[in-house]
From TrEMBL:
<keyword id="KW-0067">ATP-binding</keyword>
<dbReference type="GO" id="GO:0010506">
    <property type="term" value="P:regulation of autophagy"/>
</dbReference>
<feature type="compositionally biased region" description="Basic and acidic residues">
    <location>
        <begin position="315"/>
        <end position="328"/>
    </location>
</feature>
<keyword id="KW-0547">Nucleotide-binding</keyword>
<feature type="region of interest" description="Disordered">
    <location>
        <begin position="297"/>
        <end position="328"/>
    </location>
</feature>
<dbReference type="Pfam" id="PF00069">
    <property type="entry name" value="Pkinase"/>
</dbReference>
<feature type="domain" description="Protein kinase">
    <location>
        <begin position="64"/>
        <end position="299"/>
    </location>
</feature>
<dbReference type="GO" id="GO:0005737">
    <property type="term" value="C:cytoplasm"/>
</dbReference>
<dbReference type="InterPro" id="IPR017441">
    <property type="entry name" value="Protein_kinase_ATP_BS"/>
</dbReference>
<dbReference type="GO" id="GO:0005524">
    <property type="term" value="F:ATP binding"/>
</dbReference>
<feature type="compositionally biased region" description="Polar residues">
    <location>
        <begin position="297"/>
        <end position="312"/>
    </location>
</feature>
<dbReference type="InterPro" id="IPR045269">
    <property type="entry name" value="Atg1-like"/>
</dbReference>
<dbReference type="InterPro" id="IPR011009">
    <property type="entry name" value="Kinase-like_dom_sf"/>
</dbReference>
<dbReference type="GO" id="GO:0004674">
    <property type="term" value="F:protein serine/threonine kinase activity"/>
</dbReference>
<feature type="binding site">
    <location>
        <position position="94"/>
    </location>
    <ligand>
        <name>ATP</name>
    </ligand>
</feature>
<protein>
    <recommendedName>
        <fullName>Protein kinase domain-containing protein</fullName>
    </recommendedName>
</protein>
<dbReference type="InterPro" id="IPR000719">
    <property type="entry name" value="Prot_kinase_dom"/>
</dbReference>
């Protein structure tokens, strides 16, 4: 029998951020629609097994109060709520499938992964909702809009994101499949990776061959419609490359050339080894990109003191260019592929 309870000693608030989703090929505010095989029967069985063994806590939904919507879209909604008689905030993610519950449980217990407490069924809902840490620090996207990072913090954030992906790929054998700044959160100045709704287990695979995702955080091989291509570990690596560049400056796409997203040159005073690392991650051909262990090893040779204290550019000007571009890039995915 499942264990139903309210948390006896609630932990301090931690993290969760936006869950955004929408139709078509898109920018980083509204990911496009997607279809894939979820192996729902398999994950339903696995989830039931964990619940029956009390490996996943199940909470009374009537103990949740003061709901506030903090992010919603086509596939999920996220609310912040409190447990009765406690000051502790939690994030409640609705409309998740069995696979996401199972994988969120699987990747738990890492310092750079969103904290998972269990599940609840809200009134009138058939599906489980996730009970997660709440992030008072917001998303990486918002953080980079509001702050210019010193080099030591750029490097630290890059290492923390890498640590989370290393945990997924090497230990848990899972591909995240949807890395972008809205799925990377910050709590107490520490990176937390979130949202495993599009993740999948290595070997069990993602059957999706459609173009979907968030520009510019999409493996360029997915744009090549002449050869069927499925997301894999190297797809996460490509996204890491874009994220690493984000840490030095908000990404700005200059062009789509030969099915490949091109970026501005590295900013002045960006560490050469760090620039070389993310450029390798951004290689068009997956086989040329490093694996996550190689990315992690490279950081041991990068000096946190070997750079200017801040990157000299206008954050306001850069963000203005980026927002203008984003408003112009909401186009139909089929049309994009035909043009390419």
């Amino acid at each position: 029998m499942c264990n139903l309870r309210s948390p006896a000693t609630p932990p301090p608030p931690k993290i969760l951020g936006n869950i955004c989703s929408g139709p078509k090929w898109t920018n980083s505010e509204h990911p496009i629609n997607f279809r894939t095989t979820y192996y729902e029967d398999h994950y339903a069985n696995e989830l039931n097994r964990l619940l029956e063994n009390n490996s996943i806590e199940r909470y009374y939904s009537h103990d949740l109060i003061h709901f506030k919507d903090i992010g919603s879209g086509g596939f999920a909604s996220v609310y912040v709520a409190k447990w009765k008689n406690t000051p502790t905030l939690y994030a409640i993610k609705k409309f998740v499938n069995n696979k996401e519950v199972y994988l969120t449980k699987t990747v738990n217990h890492h310092v750079n992964i969103i904290g998972f407490y269990g599940v609840t069924k809200l009134e009138g809902e058939e599906r489980y909702s996730l009970v997660l840490d709440y992030a008072d620090g917001g998303t990486l996207r918002d953080y980079l809009r509001n702050y210019i990072l010193e080099w030591k913090d750029q490097l630290r954030f890059a290492r923390e994101i890498t640590s989370a992906i290393l945990w997924l790929h090497e230990i848990k054998k899972i591909v995240h499949g949807d890395l972008h700044p809205n799925n990377i959160l910050i709590h107490k100045d520490t990176i937390k990776l979130a949202d495993f709704g599009r993740s999948f287990e290595i070997g069990k695979g993602c059957d999706n061959t459609e173009v979907w995702g968030v520009l510019p955080y999409v493996d360029p091989k997915m744009l090549d419609q002449t050869i069927p291509y499925k997301l894999n570990e190297k797809s996460d690596i490509y996204c890491l490359g874009v994220l690493f560049r984000d840490l030095t400056s908000p990404s700005f796409i200059n062009d789509l050339e030969n099915n490949h997203i091109t970026f501005e040159d590295a900013l002045p005073n960006t560490n050469d080894k760090f620039t070389g690392l993310y450029q390798k991650c951004l290689e068009r051909e997956p086989d040329v990109r490093p694996n996550i262990s190689e990315v992690n090893e490279t950081f041991s040779s990068i000096d946190s003191e070997d750079n200017a204290s801040t990157v000299p550019y206008s954050k306001e000007s850069e963000e203005s260019k980026k927002m203008e571009f984003e408003h112009s890039c909401q186009i139909d995915s089929n049309k994009l592929c035909q043009e390419l």
